[in-house]
Structures are given as C-alpha cells and as structure tokens.
Amino acid sequence: MTDRPGPITDTDDAIGTRDLGVRYSLRFSRKKSMQRTLSQLLTREPAEQFWALRHVDLRVVHGESLAVIGPNGAGKSTLLQVLAGIIRPSEGVVDVRGHVSALLTLGAGFDVDLSGSENILLAGAFLGLDDRLMRDLLPGIVEYADLGQFIDAPLKTYSSGMRARLGFAIATSVDPDILLLDEVLATGDATFRAKSKARVLELVRDAKAVVLVTHDMEWVREYCNRAVLIEHGQIAFEGDPDEVVALHREHTEDEKRRKAAEARAAGLAPAIAR
C-alpha cells in the first residue's frame, strides 16, 4: 500500500479508495505444461500479469447503500475482498472507517461438523468479539435465521438457503458500521429475501454503509441509492441506480450481439473455404 499525503475521506465517509489496483501473476494460475512452467522459472522469464482491478477511485458515505454490478470476471468480488481486508492491494490506497462485517462467500468460515449455534460462537471469535457478547446475541441470531431445531444440528445437514439465513443473521447482528455482501441475498426463499432487504434498509437508515455485489437488477433499482458499473477491473460508470442498470443492460446486449456475430463469421468460414 502506497503512502498518501493526507486522508482520502471526509468525516462522514465510511470507505475511500484512490488509484486502487490488484495485480495477479498468471505463472501458476493458467494451465500450462510442466516443461513451460519449469522453463519460465529456470530462465527467470517474467510472469504474465493480470490486473483484476486498476485505477479504482471509490467513495462510500455512511447511510449509503451502494450496488456494485458488472459482468462476471469484472473484479466486483475482488473489490469487496479488498474492502474487507482479505486481499492487500498491489497499488493505491484503501481507507475503511468503522467496524466491518462481511458475508462474501456463502458459508465461508463455517465448520460443517459443528452445529449452527457453535458456528455462531465461532464466527464471533473470527470477528474478534467477546464470547459473552456472542452468547447474548445468540438467541436473536437464532430467531432471525428461523432455523428452529436445526440450530443444534451439524451444518453439513443444512441446505444452502439455511446456511444463507444463518450467515446473514450473524453478519447483521453485530451492529456493523460497514456491511459487505456478495450475492448472498439471491439465496433463500422469498420470505427470507424480503426480510434481509428490510434489514439492509434498516442499517442504511441507521447511517450504516452497505456495499452489495449483485446480479439482481431489481434490488439495485429499488433498494440502493447509488450504483457503480465495473468492467475489465475499472469503474466504467457510477451514479443513479436506474442509469447504471440501463447502461449495464445495454453493454450486455452489445456483448451478446458481438459474440453472435463472431460465431456466425466462424461458422461461415469453412463454407467459404470450400
């Protein structure tokens, strides 16, 4: 992380990034022959570099629900992992102010051999919270997750929807200043999705900051007050959710037409050759 001359954020800001970049080496991430990999290592040939994020400037204030949308592989989840402190940026600055609660991967950090209640206490330990506090919070988490008698059953017996309810209940019960969510609201039944959306709105009303990665455009339009579109690791557009969603859909249709044209051209090539 580079030095910076002064703070990025104002007093009301929850998150600020400046010129943020995350770079990966492709030496071991692509399928290559053993001979090719050894050759690169022995000759010290520079590894190919891939920028998952580049030149990302972002600001999120308390009381804001920000949607991060874009095509698969655009860098959305990488951005949330940087904000959560899971990934260190290769360049640029990240300034996150307040207690962060993140639910980035369904079931991440859970032990499938432990019961639901035991996993609640385990999650509290991961978050650095006092065991007595988590035991005080446990009844409310159990009630919110609506798992009934399954709360004492091993997590490996849970459905994906049950795990989603438990994870969301834990993440939102610790009164976070900043809540990071990655596609977790798409899991579960309609009743749970409605309850989870109400909880997110409650956090926003309490001047908390919410950053949500989602492919649910209706959620973006109805429940977020700002959105950013990420393409190829960079912010392509940000602003009003309706405008950002419309642009994303336009770009998606353009990409579909481009791929269809390429497929047609490839299909005609053999016929022309004959």
- Tell me the β content: 15-25%
Compute the CA-based radius of gyration: 22 Å
In which order are the strands of the major sheet placed? Answer: 5-6-7-3-8-9
Percent helix range: 40-55%
- Distance between the ends: 58 Å
Tell me, briefly, the overall form. globular
Uncertain runs with pLDDT below 50, 5 residues or more? 1-9
Element-by-element helix/strand order = EHEEHEEHHHEHEHEEH
Question: Treating each run of at least 4 consecutive H or I residues as one helix, how many helices?
Answer: 8
Number of strands: 9
Structural class: alpha/beta
- Reported by name, the CATH topology of the domain at 13-99 and 176-273 is Rossmann fold
In round numbers, the mean pLDDT is: 84
Describe the structure.
This protein is of the alpha/beta class and 274 residues long. The protein has a domain at 13-99 and 176-273: Rossmann fold (3-Layer(aba) Sandwich). The protein contains eight helices and nine strands. The protein has helices at 34-43, 76-83, 116-126, 131-145, 160-173, 190-205, 217-223, 241-273, and strands at residues 13-25, 49-61, 65-69, 91-96, 100-103, 178-182, 209-213, 226-231, 234-239. A six-stranded mixed sheet has the order 5-6-7-3-8-9, sandwiched between helices. Strands 2-1-4 form a three-stranded antiparallel sheet, covered by helices on one side. Helix 6 links the parallel strand 6 and strand 7. It is globular and about 60 Å long. The N and C termini lie far apart (58 Å).
